[in-house]
Predict the 3D structure of the following.
Amino acid sequence: MRYTRRVRWVLECDSLGKRFGMRWVFRGLSLRAESGSVVVVQGGNGSGKSTLLRIVAGLTAPTEGQVILRYGAQRVAPRMDYLGWCATDGALYRELTAYEHLSWWATVRGGAPSREALLAWLARFALAERAHERVRAFSTGMRQRLRLALATWGQPPLLLLDEPDAGMDRSGLALLERILYEQRTFGLALFATNRAEHARWGDLVLEMGA
Amino acid sequence: MGVVTVAALSFASLGVSLSVRLQAGVLWLAVLFGMFPALARGFISEEELGTADLLRLGARPSCVFWGKWLFHMTLYAVLSAVLVPLYMLMIAPLEGAWWAWLGLWGLGGVGLVTVLTLCGALVAGTASRGALLAVVTFPLLLPMVLMLIAATEQILHARPVGQSLQGILGYGLMLSAGAAWIFEKIWRE
C-alpha cells in the first residue's frame, strides 16, 4: 500500500483484555493514538506492558476486545506489515552478523537494499564497524541497538518498543530518544518502560495496573 | 539416531537372516529416528531462542512453513545419503527397480517431512514438547509408515508397486494441503 504523510495513522485498542488461566492481566483497556504521538506504557512487573505490546503487534491474541490500525478511514490488515517491533527478550540469530540480520530482515520485508544502504543504516546505530561480527559476540547494549535497527528499518508507521532502554548506555539512550522524536514525523509509537524519567519522551502515559 | 539404529540392528542380527518385512521396517524406522532430532532445528529451536517472533512479524505463514519444510526435506536427503549406503552395507542390499525406489523415497520423504514439520510447529510453543510430539505425530505418521513398509516389501519382492505409490502420493498430498492450511491457523496465536 502506498501512503503519504498527509493521511494520519490511527491505532485503536477497543476494550482489550487478556487472561492467563484464571488471572486477568488487564481488562477493559481502550486506547486511541494518532500519527505524531508517542504513548509511554508504564507499570510494575507483571502489569501487562509486554502483553499489551504483543497484542498490538499481533503476536498474542487478546482474550477480549480488538486492535485496529487505520490509515485515514481505511482499516489496515494485516497490521504486522506496518509495524516495527523491538523487545528486550526478542532474540536474534546468534550465528548471523548484524549485517546479515538487517539484510535478511529487509528482504523478508520486501525490499532489496544495496550493501551501502544497509551499512549506512547500521552506522546510524553505531554498529557499522562491527557489522560483520556474529551477534553472539555482541554486548547487551549492542544487541539492543541491533533490535532497534531492525524495528525501525523501512520507517514503519507503528513502532512498538518493549523496554528498549534496558541495558542501554548514555549514547544509546540519546539514540532512542531521537528515534522516538523522528517517529512522530511519519507515524506513532508505543514505548513500554520501567524508568519513570523516560516518561517525558512520550506525549501520553498509559499506567498499567493502576 | 538413524545410524545408531542401523548399526545396533545389524549387530543384533549378526548371522541371522532378517525377513523382508523386517528389513523394510528397519529401513523406515532408521529414517524416522534420524528425522526426529532434526525437529529441534526447526520450529522448536526458533521458539526456544525466541526468534519465532521475528519470523511471525516478518514473513507470511506459508513462507515460513514451506521454508522449514524445504529445510527438513534437505535434511531428509542428506540423511538418506548416509543411511542408505550404511543400510545396504550392514543390513541388506536394496534390490528391485531403481525407479520404484526413487519414487518411494521421494514420496515417502514428502509425507514424513510434512507430518514432522507440522507436528513440530504444533508442539513448539508448548511446555512438554518431547512427550507431546510423540503423541501428536503417531496417528498421522502411522498410516504413512505402514504404507511405506508395505511398498518397500513389494519392491524387495519384485512385485508391482504402482498402486502403493499412488496411495502414498495421495496421503502425502492430502497431508501437505492440510498441513499448510492448519499451519496458517496455529502460527499466529
Summary: The two ends of chain A are 38 Å apart (CA to CA).
